[in-house]
Amino acid sequence: SLNCVEWSLLPPATEEMVARAEQLKGRFQGDPSFEYECTEINAEDAERLFEDGKELMIKEESRLVATIEQIDRAVGIIPRGAFVKSPLGSVHENRNFEGLSLTEAKKLSSYFHFTEPVNLKNKTLLEKADLDPSTDFLDSLEHDIPSGNGS
């Protein structure tokens, strides 16, 4: 919104938006049309973008979209069992899920990152043997190491 009265949805983030936004530091300007120049880009990427007819600029609106996407990826979590994966691979909300027990709610292993799994793919067959493929198809928070906590 430019006037805090009329609001519109932001466009979805692309990987290119996220990659460009990661290069930028500092505060937002507060103007969605403000353009940042991507100065910290390697020569190969700069040449490719130039050949594709794309500028080495990113609008503040795109930076905001990319920042929101990065935050969502980092903090989106779900409790174990809230979503299920069918044998055909589709994921949907578990209508039978009634929440975690108090004991389970206190364990990090009862929560999953709500993003494409990375660590799960690296587990051995022995580690995967104890997992239920219908509920344990995402990366657990169990082995996460906090970063940027000021210590």
Average per-residue pLDDT, rounded, comes to 85
Rg, alpha carbons: 20 Å
- Low-confidence runs of at least 5 consecutive residues: none
Helix and strand run: HEHEHEEEHEH
> Strand pairing plus helix content: what structural class?
alpha+beta
Major beta sheet, specifics?
Answer: 2 strands, antiparallel
Count every helix, treating DSSP H or I runs of 4 or more residues as helices: 5
Helix share bin: 25-40%
From the N-terminal CA to the C-terminal CA, the straight-line distance is 37 Å
Number of strands: 6
Task: Output the strand order for the largest sheet.
Answer: 1-2
Percent of residues in beta strands: 5-15%
Give the overall silhouette.
Answer: elongated
The tally of domains stands at 2
Main location: other
Family: Belongs to the flagellar radial spoke RSP9 family.
Protein name: Radial spoke head protein 9 homolog
Keywords: Cell projection, Cilium, Cilium biogenesis/degradation, Cytoplasm, Cytoskeleton, Flagellum
